[in-house]
Amino acid sequence: MVVVPRTPSQSRALAVGPLLALLVTGCAVTPEVAPTTAGSPGSTPAASAPAPAPAPAPTPVPLPLGELEARYDARVGVHAVDTGTGAAVVWRDDERFAYASTIKALAAGALLDLVGVDGLGRQVPVEADDLVVFSPVTETRVGGTMTLAEVAEAAVTRSDNTAGNLLLEALGGPAALDAALAALGDDVTVVSRTEPDLNEAARGDERDTTTPRTLAEDLRAYVLGDTLGDEERAVLTAWLTGTRTGDTLVRARLPADWVVGDKSGAAGYGTRNDVAVVWPTGGAPIVVAVMSDRADRDAEHDDALVAEAASAAVAALGRG
Would you say 286 and 254 are in contact if contact means Cβ atoms under 8 Å apart? Predict the structure, then answer.
C-alpha cells in the first residue's frame, strides 16, 4: 500500500515520541506497540510493507545544474529517484564527495540490521575521553551510560559526533560499517575514519567518500527495501523524520505537507550534503541525495544550494 504521510510536525511528534521513549528505556518494541498503519497513533511512513520493486529504471535524465554551480561557486552532485516509476534525475551523481555526517544514517541502519529492535536497549558507557567537537547530547551524559537507541537517535537527529563514534564502535569500527554497506551491494563508499577526522574532505582522498547515487541507493535499501524488518525500518524512519538539522536543506523548498526523513552533513572545503526519503501526499516515495563542495579548504557551505538542487530534482521528476 502507499502510505499517505502526515505533515512534518505531526510526523515528528508522533513518530519520535512514543516509539523512542520505549527504546531508550531498553524495552523492545512489540508488534502491538510498533506503528502498523498510516492512520494509527504513532504511525510513520515506514510502517507499510516495502514498496514493490519498480520496473527497470529508464535512462536517467541529466539535471542541468551548471547555472546553480556557477551562482554558488560550488560543485554539486544530485541523484533523485521516484521509487514508483523508477525515473531518476542526475547531476554528477557518480562523482565522489566527502559524505560527512550523512554516514550516520547508514550506520544507524547497519546497527538496526545487526542488533534488531531488541538489541537497542544495550547500555554503552560515555567517558570524558570519548568526547569530540559538537556533541550536544553525549556531553550531558559523561560518566554514565546511554542505550544504543539513545546513541543512534542522538547521532541521527542531532548529528552528535561522539554518538556517531559510539555508533561506529558498536558496529565494530569503520571497517565493519564498510563491510555492512558492501553487503548491500555498495562497492563505492569508503568508510575509513571516525569523527572529526572523516570531515577532512581533502581533494583526491577517497577515504570517507561516496557518490550521490550510492548514498541514495543505500538509504533506500535501509528505509524502503527489505534489508530491515518492519519494526527496524519504522525505528529508522522515526529517527530520520525526527532530525533537527535538515530544515534548511532538502525539505526547505518542498511542500509543507510532505514528510521528509533526512540526514545532513558538513565538512571541509565547503562540503554540505543531505540525503532524504521524501513521502509526498500522493504517490510513491522519492529518494534524494544532494552533495556539494567548494575549491577552498576553508570555504563556507551554503544550505540554499542544497535546497535549490533538491527542489529542482523533484520538479524534474514531475513531482511537487
Answer: no
pLDDT band at 52 (very low <50, low <70, confident <90, very high): very low
| DSSP helix/strand/coil, 296 | coil
234 vs 226: CA distance, rounded Å: 12
Instruction: Quickly list DSSP for 227-265.
Output: SS-HHHHHHHHHHHHT-SS-TTTGGGGS-TTSEEEEEEE
Q: Minimal CA–CA distance to 275: which of 189, 150, 205?
A: 189
pLDDT tens for residues 257-281? 999 999 999 999 999 999 999 999 9
Name the β-bridge partners of 80: 89, 288
Domain positions in the chain are 8-316
**Window from 15-24, 157-166, 271-280 with minimum mean pLDDT:** 15-24
C-alpha cell at 276: 532524504
At residue 310, what are phi and psi to the nearest 5 degrees?
Answer: -65, -45
Catalytic positions? 101, 195
Q: CA-CA distance, 260 to 237, in Å (whole number)?
A: 9
What is 8-316's CATH number? 3.40.710.10
pLDDT of residue 300: 96
Place of cell 541514495: 216
- Give phi and psi for 220, each to the nearest 5: -60, -40
Q: Which long-range contacts (CB under 8 A, 24 or more apart) does 203-207 make?
A: 203/269, 206/96
**Per-residue pLDDT tens over the stretch 82-97:** 999 999 999 999 999 9
